[in-house]
Amino acid sequence: MLPSMPRPPGVTPQTRRRHRIPGVRRSAVTFRQHEAVLSWYAAHRRDLPWRRLDASPWAVLVSEIMLQQTPVARVLPAYRAWLRRWPTPTALAGAAPGEAVRQWGRLGYPRRALRLHAAATILDRQYGGAVPASHADLLALPGIGGYTAAAVAAFAFGQRHAVLDTNVRRVLARLVTGTQFPPAHPSAAEKRLAESLLPADPPVAARWSVAVMELGALVCTSSRPRCAQCPVAAACQWHLSGQPESPAPRPAQRYAGTDRQCRGALLALLRESPAPVSATALGAAWPDPAQRARATDGLVADGLVEVHPDDTFTLPGT
Ligand code: SF4
């Protein structure tokens, strides 16, 4: 309850009527909860470079690709180094795709680097080196799914789109639906719910999306929500109903000994080598021949590695 606070623009009493959502228990999210979350965000937000006013749409796009399945702490140094080297899509488009894979380093899921390079090439050739503001144009770029297109449209261009990442889904599941965790996969119903909660004014809607995301990252965490510090605890359906437990989300997958680890070891060797790498050298990086062959074939099929007639290997185009 923040009766003395100025109401953020775009959050009006009419919002209350829009928030009557079929199938959702009463007291979902009113303009008062909007005020509370936006005010909390203004006071507690982390100073992340991609959220600063001077962050370009390209910087926002790079951050969103890097943040897929990767924590902020690991992304920060990689993001800074990437933008120092390639501050625009045109700069990246002028580099070999293998250089993007090399620069990606140990962030994981390196196909993201290739897709980012492919997206930069399209931005350079079709958009004059700019990032388009249209959600449909963003969605057509390689590696950009519905979530990332919505996030870039909202955070880079202040548009009104539901941005449903893991944190937002968890907060809305607890606050509105009254369950501890959202379903394993995002559903159309969740998207409709998130859209119905967006404030009317596009820039405020964009701020609401990033504020809910931050609330999920800092307060409404997966295993230990800090409800005593939550700005919407008084309206949270899960909290008010005694925090009933529901099945936990899937545990993190084992990494040690997997093909994924083998691919990572082979790719690390190629990243660190300025010259082509022989099959013998790859063999030293991962001793199991069957697993190594499977991983190498996968890397070649994914376009992350090139094999040459003399039986040496390099990153693509390097
Ligand atoms: Fe999450 Fe607790 Fe806030 Fe509900 S009250 S939204 S569970 S932190």
What does this protein look like?
It is a single chain. A three-stranded antiparallel beta sheet has the order 1-3-2. The radius of gyration is 22 Å and the shape is globular. It has a domain at about 260-315: Arc Repressor Mutant, subunit A, CATH 1.10.10. The chain is built from 16 helices and three strands. About 50% of the residues lie in helices and about 0% in strands. Helix 6 packs across helix 7. A hairpin with a 4-residue loop joins strand 2 (about 305) and strand 3. With about 325 residues, the chain is an all-alpha fold. Iron/sulfur cluster binds next to helix 10 and helix 13. Iron/sulfur cluster binds near residues 174 and 233.
Shape: globular
Strand tally, please?
Answer: 3
Instruction: Please state the CA-atom Rg, rounded to the nearest Å.
Output: 22 Å
What would CATH call the architecture of the domain at 259-314? Orthogonal Bundle
Oligomer description: single chain
User: Portion of residues in helices?
Assistant: 40-55%
Helix/strand structural class:
mainly alpha
Main beta-sheet annotation: 3 strands, antiparallel
Count of helical segments? 16
Which cofactor or ligand species appear? iron/sulfur cluster
